[in-house]
## 1
Amino acid sequence: MCGIVGYTGDKNCIPILMNGLTSLAYRGYDSAGVAVWEGSDLTLRKAKGKIENLKNLLETSPISGLSGIGHTRWATHGEPSDVNAHPHTDSHKTLAIVHNGIIENYLHIKSMLVKNGCVFVSETDTEVVAQLLGYYYDGDPLETLKKTVPMLEGSFALAILFADEPETIYCTCKDSPMVVGHGKNESIIASDIPAILEYTRDVYFVQDRQIAVLKKNGLAFYDEFGATIEKPVTHIDWDVEAAKKGNYEHFMMKEICEEPDAFRKTFDQYVNKDFTLKSERFPWDKARAKSLKRLTIVSCGTAFHAGMLGKKFIEHMAKLRVDVDIASEYRYGDTLIENGEAFMVISQSGETADTIAALRRAKELGCDTMAVCNVTGSTISREAGHVLYTYAGPEIAVAATKSYLTQIILLYLCALDLAQKRGEMSQVQITDRLKEMSKVPAAMQKVLDNKEQIQYFASRSFAVKHVFFIGRGLDYALAMEAALKLKEISYIHSEAYAAGELKHGTIALIEEGSLVVALATQPDLQAKVASNMEEVRVRGAHVLAVTNGPWDGAAGHSHEQWQIDQMDATLAPLCAIVPMQLLAYYLAVQKGCTVDQPRNLAKSVTVE
Ligand code: F6R
């Protein structure tokens, strides 16, 4: 949700800021801007639209300087426009500021400032912060921040350049991530790790209301009262190349192609070479696992869909009841959970506002919390009682692909661990399952090697108006993610339905030419799914069946079949997600959509 980058050092900051903004474009992309200290003045360049527009502006109207801040925006207050783009300044241009998040009490502060003569030029809550800082500024940036930051309610990450101290960048945050690093004669700040990786792998995460001060020669950190603090360094082992597009046309395709590798990396972290689980890496010992009555899983979007699949894995294998909820619902609902109960959040970014709020609520209630998370040092990974890291590496495309895969892998492994500890599965059964699981990446690779089949299908189907993904059991949970992937990047209306539920209403929507993707990877349920396929086929739908190995029964009820390698039914979703992601990708490409940056969306949703 909006990207921030800031630099101070011995190089011209403009190429560095632009490079950082380009790598953060997935966080927001309706306008962008930079502010630099040009030697005598704070100079700004801002442009509505993609970062390209800002690049063009900087070519026709160049600026340079040794320190500066930049921003790529995802509008919350005020439409996308040049004037609402960040950075913003106060009326006297004593400072320039970029901001992620939402200042909830901005109207209240604004009316106080207007009464005191401030004239606003934009509709943003960010300008309110700029004017507030300018209003209280007394020549000492740190004192000004100490005074004003406590007045701000909501979520924010702020990077500020003061004209009186132009070689220093100040920043602070609350419920919105901020990462700081120091390289040789330079310091850099960003709202996400990929923008910083080229300069250093040793980073510091600024925590709520802390203040970071960046100078060419080093970093200093203060608490909200201005007392100096020491912060632990976090080493990021992501590969710099992993955050680049390489020869792929889109990050999304690159990230889908990386899935077999992400699978192996995550698997190897939790499974020994002899196909036993590294059970010490999972929360809970035997006694605790046996005593559990329920696990609650809370997350958003794709991560919520991972939770839905996780519920089915855990209930089936470990015989433990699992309740799954959407974080934005859970946080304001009647939380019927008791002290000591097991509570899990799932989040790729570790920064999703609603998920953080749900986690904090569970902690307040005394729950035993854990997180499945992809980003070391993120808010969720710091605050959860136990963290199960996924090893997807950086995910840049807005649509989650490899992060979802690694989440469901971990949930599968969690289910096996709980099943073993609760005495529901023997060591031999676990080892057999893990051996079979280790073969899934090869099956995924086969899907990837034959992706032209999917591309060809997409080239014939991209004009379709409605797509229904249906399935039963695990396939239904998978269908939810398949439908989300398609709608978010191709803008084709798609829905997921429990195959047996269609006839209770939704079947009314099926008409000549509707596309129905029947996920039919569960042999026990195939006969039932066949009936549901027939129900839609006779009503004019074009039916595509996705099967686990060959299934003769599909032929009469579908127009097309895609097969994944035959495998244990519980493992099939781990492989069947790949053709679903590829289908969404190719349909979006056929429609000419901006695959990596779909309209209205942003990665890492740090506002409510
Ligand atoms: C969809 C997508 C989103 C995220 C959701 C949660 O492709 O990426 O639905 O899954 O915003 O994000 P995290 O996992 O970062 O908490």
## 2
Amino acid sequence: MNTSPQFPSAASTTVGTTLEEHIMAGQRGSPGATGDFTSLLSSVSLAVRIIHSRVRAAGLAGMLGYTGHTNVQGEAVQKLDMFANEVLCTVFERSSHCAVIGSEELDELKLSDPMGRYVVLFDPLDGSSNIDVNISIGTIFAMLRVPQGSDPADIAASLQPGRLIAAAGYAVYGSATTFVLTTGHGVHCFTLDPNIGEFFLSHPNMRCPDTGSIYSINEGNSCRWAPPVKRWNEWIKTEDKATGRPYDHRYVGSLVGDAHRTMMKGGIFAYPPDSKNPKGKLRLLYEANPMAFLFEQASGAATNGIDRILDIQPTDVHQRTPLVLGSRNDVATFRQFMLGER
Ligand code: P6P
């Protein structure tokens, strides 16, 4: 039986709690843990630090700009996207614990180690369009176990609903590089000390406030929204002191940036379906699911506007979904508009 891991106590004033110590503490709290999971999480940490170093120097290293290729999404692939994808694929393949790799930058799922017990799914560099203008970008990942007795080569092993995620997290390459992680026992944020290349626990037990005061949506799409979304959008911008409206509007166009702010300050992020993206724009397996798992672990909520993201049964690696996440009360209000209850 898994007991709740006893994470290291609050950092001492001299030496903080490192990401590795936190991960190891999590393993000690899981009887029967083999260390595979811990090893995979350490692989992610290495990859993020390598990507961090390249992102920081991208302008000088000639890594800005496009490669001339387009990915399965039909999006122009930037040099840093390819670099981040190669780094993550390499560390997971070397770990020998990863059976299947799924990436925004890979057309198909990639079989790795047949003895591996985990499926890893990631967006190697989310927010690519912001790379050249120095706005926060990030890496998003989810890890799931290969179901007992199933063949990793069977795509069904990877197309599991998000509620079965074993670990999820994201890195934000912003004014600081932060790493937000959950293994199902709360959400914990680590900040990189670039001078020593170590992540230190900076925000233990993160909790998304039940109600916020910020809404985050691309208002430029408003002409394409369905009427319930337009009604919600007008409602949230209407003066009403009793309900703290109008909310402030913030939108940076990187899911990791908008989600991290929402996680820290509360409020709501929404990318609803519209006439240009009738199924939504964001990808279920390696964007919406990991974010939804993290927000629920932080007492927040995540839906497709109506239904819980984590209950969606995937049918394709790159399928898209509408995504509404953030403070549970704000997500619930959005849902009332979608159901016509407001
Ligand atoms: P739009 C970035 O390209 C991304 O996939 C997410 O990181 C972000 O939330 C969204 O697209 C932004 O899309 O249409 O508002 O530019």
